[in-house]
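User: I'm putting together notes for a lab meeting next week and I want to include a structural view of one of the chains we've been expressing. I don't have a solved structure, so I'd like a prediction I can at least talk through. The sequence is below, exactly as it appears in our construct file.
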Amino acid sequence: MGKFILIYKGEHNLNKDLLIIAPEYYSFVKDQTESIAIFFSNVKVLVRHNPIAEISTILPINSLTNFRKKNLINCINIPHNISVFPTPVYYAPLDFFYKRLGEQHFCAVNSIIRKNYFHFDLMHAHATWSSGYVGARLKDLYHVPFLVTAHGYDIYSLPFKDAIWKKKIEYVLNKADAVITVSQSNLKCIQKLDVDTPVYIIPNGFRSDLFSPREMAASRRVLGLPLDRKILLNVGNLEPVKGQKYLIDAVNEIIKERKDILCIVVGMGSEIRTLEKQILFQGLGEYVLLVGKKPHDEIPLWINACDIFVLPSLNEGNPTVMFEALGCGKPIIGTKVGGVPEVIFSEDYGLVVEPADIGDLADKIMMALDRKWDQKKILAYAKQFTWENIAKETLKVFTKISV
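Assistant: Thanks for the context. Below is the predicted structure for the 403-residue chain, given as C-alpha cells.
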C-alpha cells in the first residue's frame, strides 16, 4: 500500500478527521493529501466532477479531456485512512455558469455528507473557487475550522476579472480561518483584496519516492527515445496560458544553430490541434513531439530521460512539475511568472526568461544545453520541497486553527 499506510502516532498527530474539497485527486492534491494523512485519523476527499466532460470519450472535444473522471481521480495505492468520493456537478464551461457553480457544488457536497453521515473536525479546500466557496458554506453549517489553499488562476486572475468575482473570492478568503498560498507572487495578489485572514506561504512539493534520479540512457530506452539527442521536456496541460507555442517557436530558432535537439511535450488540452498545425507549418516534425497525456507514475521516466526541463508559461501559481523535475536533478528553464523565479532564484538550479519572449527562451535553452550542471547541488536543494516536508508545514497551520 505504499509508505503512507501507517498512521503517524507521534506527538503531532491531531487525532482528528479531515474533510478535503478539491478539483482533482490525481497529482498535486493526491500527493499532498497522502503525505498529510499520516497526521489524521481519517481523511475524506470530495472531488468535483462534471459528467458533461465524459462526452469527450465519444466526441473529439480536446478541451474536456483533462476533466474526465479518470483524469481527475487516481486511487492507486491509496492509504487505508483516505476515502475519495466523486462529486458530480453539471455545468457548462462558461463564465456565466461558472459564477453560479459555488452553490451547486455546495449542495452536491452537503448531500454526500448527509447521505454518508460524515464526521469531520477540520476542512481543507484546494482552490478558492468553487471548493473554497463550499468550505465557507460548510463552516457556517457545521461550525468546523476551515483552511483554503489559493493555488494559481483562482487567485492571480479570477478575483480581478470583475467586481462580482472579487466579491466572491473575498467572501471565501474572509470566511477561512487561515489561507495558504504557494508563492510570494500569489500573496501580492491577495494583498490587493480586502482580506483580514492570516495567510501562510507554503510551496508545492514532490513525491521523493517517485521523483528521483534514474539513469538517463535506461529511461530513454524504456520510452524508445534516441540516445544521441539533447532532449528538452515540457509537461503540462496544452492550454494557451502554458505557453507551449513559444517553446515550439524557440525550437525553430535553435535548430538554425544546432540539429541535435528533440523537444518533447507531454500533455493534452484545447491547444493540441493548434500546436500540431504549428509544428507541421514550421517543418519541425523531426524536432518536436507531442506525446499526449501520460500516467502520473510514468512522468519520472520522461523527466529522467531529458537534459533540460522547460516551463514556458505565461502565468503560474507554483507548478508542482517544477519541483518534480528538481527532485530528479534536472535544471529548469522557466518564465518569470508566479512562483517560478522564487524557486529558480539561482543559476545553480536553472535559468529564468521573460514570458512570451521567443528569443530569450531560445538563448537560455542554448546556454543550458552547453552548460555542465551540478546534479548533486540540484538534488540537495530539492530536498526541502518533498511532500513530507511540505506536509509538516501545512500541519502547523492546521494546528493553529484547530486549537
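A couple of points you could mention at the meeting. Confidence is low (pLDDT under 50) at residues 1-11. Residues 101-116 form the longest helix (16 residues).

User: Perfect, that's what I needed.
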